[in-house]
Amino acid sequence: MQKSEAHLSRRPIPLSFILMAVLLVHLPLLVMKLPLKSYDTNQHIFFASHYLQHWFDPWNTKWYAGFSQTTYPPLPQQWIAVLSHITGLEYGYMAVQLVAILLLAVGVYRFSLLWVSPRAASFAALASVFLGSESFLVYSAGQLGTTSAAPIYLNALPFLFEWIRFGRWRAFIKASVLFAAAAAAHHATLIFGSFFFALPVVALAIMEREEGDESERSSTAALIARTVAIVVVVTAAIVVVLLPFWIALIHYPVTQEPIPHASRANYILSPFWGLNYFIVPYGAVILAFPFIFWRGAAVHRLRPLLVGFWLAFLVGLGGTTPVSQLVLRRAGEVITMERFSYWATLLALPFIGVLVTELIDRFKTPAIATICTLAALTCGLAVAWSTIHPPDAQEFDTKPVADWLDRDGHDHYRYITLGFGNKIARLAMQTDAGSVDGEWNSARQLPELTAHGAGTLTSSKFFGKNGIDALRAMLEHADHYGLKWVFVRDHYYDPLLAFAGWRPVDNLNDHTIIVWSKDGVPPATPLNAPQIPPHWQGLLWGLLPFGCSILAILVLLIPERRPLESRIAFPSPAEEEYVPGRLAS
Amino acid sequence: MSNGGRLLAIALAGATVALVVIGTLWPNKAAAAFSSGEQFSTSAGTPEAAVRSLGEQIRANAYQRAYDSLANKGEFSEQQFHRDLTSGWPDLRTYATLSDFQVQPLHASDSEADVRLKMQWSTVVGPSPSSRDLHLVNNGGRWQVQWPITKEPVVPPQVIPVNYLRWDVINRSSADDWGAQDVEGPHVRIVDMHPVQRAEGLVLLGELLNEDVIPAYVSVTATLLSKDQKPIDTEGSFDNISHQLLPKQVTPFLIRFPNVTLSQVGSVRMQPFSQLISASADPVIEIQNEKLNPAPDASVTGQLTNQSGQIANVAHVLGTFYDQQGQVVWVGDQYVDHALLPGVPVAFNIHIPEDLARKVSSQRTVVATYSFGGAQ
Questions:
Q1: Domains plus CATH for chain B?
Q2: Mutating which of B124, B243, B317 best tests the A interface, going by the most A Cβ atoms within 10 A?
């Protein structure tokens, strides 16, 4: 009887239990719409609202006097648009985010199976539910693209391994389609994920080419050939699926002045940003660092994973080390670093799974209590961080501004806001009027905005001289863009507007928002920009990325002959070399 | 664990620590920009290093650390030091950030030194330079700054009689948009216009007169036309003009066309714009001790004195410079970064480009002001 109980306690946690844990932790937070406070959530919903109305026309005239949404992979936003027919846009966002978190748990389990035992993999998957970096990206950063692409990518990696290691065509098809779907969700995840996630998997397949039955062994040449084959096919698939994106990127590369971002700070010299971008995302994972390095180095087959983790970890440290600047160069001035920490924590999860397994096996209940406490604290801190340090602390209603713009022909002119934070995406959804400001910096082409190294005009003062220079440049060219209205919620800007010839003409929200106007401005005319995608690109953009995700769902329905655990799992040297109890020795 | 594994773990951990140390001791530009100033060496081994450290602390808004490092901190409070740098009254400096600074040694001995700290503040209307000559003393091998505190002027209690002109405009209804007045705009006229080729492009200078008996909001837009009458570029005067003109007032204007040369231009189409507005002559700003200083460092200097009872938080001084024939040769401006308190003179200094200074024989100065709370 005792033996039976012991056997039961050493079984993997059922995936259904892990998915229930996801629902238990994240569903209430998403029902409460907690991500709406984050940096980017409203931007994703804004993109989705455009797809809702113009599925086949990615040219959005509400920001930057017009910009192309082909500059950002569309999959999560398109799914929001589809779901919004039932749920509305906000709950559509929450639903897509929830699915992404559910997929992450599955993806972590499947990815971890490549490296560790099924039991450790199940602990890794359970740990993903409480991962600080996941909660940080979901509730504070609002990075839907990253948090939805990574799970798809993780789910694709075991198929990649199966294809390279065993040459199974079914795995080849599934891996290819999933990789393409992941790219349709977020391009950067695929580009950088290839180095941090895929290369270790390829290395593992090569390292273990001699393992298993005679029929399962492959030559190095065969493995390399399969790797090349899938790289070629996936690259071609991604090129086709995101063709308008690549065309936009090649014709209009991001050459604007770099915009400062705190994730590039040195986290020791800037302790607050260290807390924000290191302590909060990593949480209790920090305590596992010695184990990760020690075990990752000790176990031969874990070394590729360790190297992947280490590199992602170093880049994720931003300006704390010179690595991000050396490795990413120009790209490091465009993309932000918190996603690398996210990937690093995902790569750390298999190690965490092993650590949890060994601690529980050795210390039983005390270990369980300690681990549960640490997990709860990690997740709790990351979730609470969006309230402790809210990205957008300003709570005010933008509807009166939208109503004002939409009446009496005010929307014949363009507008900007000052002091609205990331409410500008919400306002853009509510009004028909166009703005010359916006939050998706990589898509902007107006020289007044790209030349100064500042972010949104509405937050100009936070970018110092660069921000004010950009604002001045835009106000100077108000006539060019039909910019007639400035909605001011921060009186810091009043002197500039007054001396530049703008005058207050109205007020909204009990005098908390002042409407400034400039007379003699001609009505806005559509920008005849070369960036406007032709109709065929709009058609591709509306069909292929979304179609790719549908195809991914369909191919995943193709049944496998054996469960994943038996297809890819090997006796782990970790378990051979490190019996429970040696951990503390 | 095998030796190879042990070596790998130690190598990776060691490399991580080494990279963190490198990144911290020599932070890259992006990382340094976010730092709170703690990392910067508090080394005060030389007078320049001590002033540089002080500048870094001010730039990082670490006023307490900056104050603690001063030799004469017993003479004033940290709050007074803070207000000395950022103003006691709301003005441009209140919300400014120090974007850059330079240290220039003036004199040094073993025990004392003088160093000039040139600061470039970033304000909402643009950069605002200022300079402080700092005296340093050597305290046991450590140089400390003696901060030359400028005490805030104290305005005595007084009654200022107000007797100024004021024009009110009654619109059709409160729901009418601003600008929909159905009345003829005030009569304004460009009395002078003169293109000047500068290194950064073409500049149009001129003056605009309000000929009417009512106040006007004015602006000027210019379109450059090529020799075949095709438009090259259109720009406005932006803040290089006084937008509010009382009856019979004249304002200079300056319009910049970057990257355009005079040889490209066939003609210029000027579009003055005027609009009837409510206005008042208050606050009255008197310009005193005005002086035209010749090259080098040609400038016009003087003092602004607020003769009204209300505080003018921001003042913008526009100088028009004429040659002997009375033609406009340059228009310069300066934002005064300190509030104009009633009766308290504040200095201004408008720079004149070196190459134009020789041509200047006379000048005229106008002042526009802004008071916080003036907006609706």
A1: 26-146 (3.10.450.100), 166-279 (2.60.40.10), 282-370 (2.60.40.10)
A2: B124
